[in-house]
Task: structure prediction
Amino acid sequence: MREIRLLHPEQLVCYAEMKGHTEDITAMIFHQSQPTILFSGDSKASVIVWDIGIPSVPDYKTRYQLLMRLRCPRLDVNPVLNLVFLPHYAYLIAGCEDGLFAWKITDLRLEKREREPDMELKLEVDHEVCIDGLAQLSDNALVIKVVESGEIMVFDFAAVLERRKGNLSLQRVVPIEMRGHLYWQKTDEIYINVSVRQNLGAVLCGDNEGAIWIYDLDPYLDDLHSSSRKKFFVKPIKILEWPECSVQGNRDEDQQLKESITSGFRNPVVNSVEMSSDGHFLAAVTDNNLVCIWRYAPPVVQQQQQQPAPPQQQQQQQQQQQQPNLL
Result:
């Protein structure tokens, strides 16, 4: 799809179709504090900044505006897979397969010329990278995932700007130093995104075997915000394995449906995961067009909120934690 459709959720109407991309749209995010500002990226490494306007009643007409076009250096090569806007620094970060690119956007006014990135964020590795995951953990911390690396990484954007400021030779390409390393699945499967629930300090990622990996980074956020360059290595607090699926309680009742759930010969790839604001529900999307809803009791939240229970009840709670429910 190459156009963006604006929907009014209460009236259930499509009130505008915005056309500007010439290729398929692959990523979209809203500005956190200016809800009419929308960023969209496409499969040919082009990014558009929109002002979608405010619909007026009773006919819900709106005047949207294409404010600016941003383009990555290697057009027609790698798609924009993720977008993150850091309001504290007024930087838009585009995550492409071949790298991370940043634009300083302080004035959201109409620009006629296309803008190249102000800088490229370069991983200090000795091989070509493919970045298929990007998310914002805090005001200054970003989480990325590199294909075949076997880990999810965290870096400090404030440190990137400080490094760039202190060296004139690093104005266009700035090396980034990883502060956190999260152990993950070793696989060459591509397009498995990483996500974050900021208010809980939680990082989530699916894998190529149907599992969901959950990390608690809340204890490490203070170190990330400090001037310390201390590194940390984190294991998941929970790995939710792909469940044994059944049809009305009978696993052998409908073999065709069972094969559609498991792709016939393997567990599906979990491409994307999101967590509810209270941490009790997960939504996952797989490569065989399934949307899976998990009811999950986070260990950290339980420790903080629940009062001590009798021994028998504690044992039941532990069993429930070990076996989250797939709704």
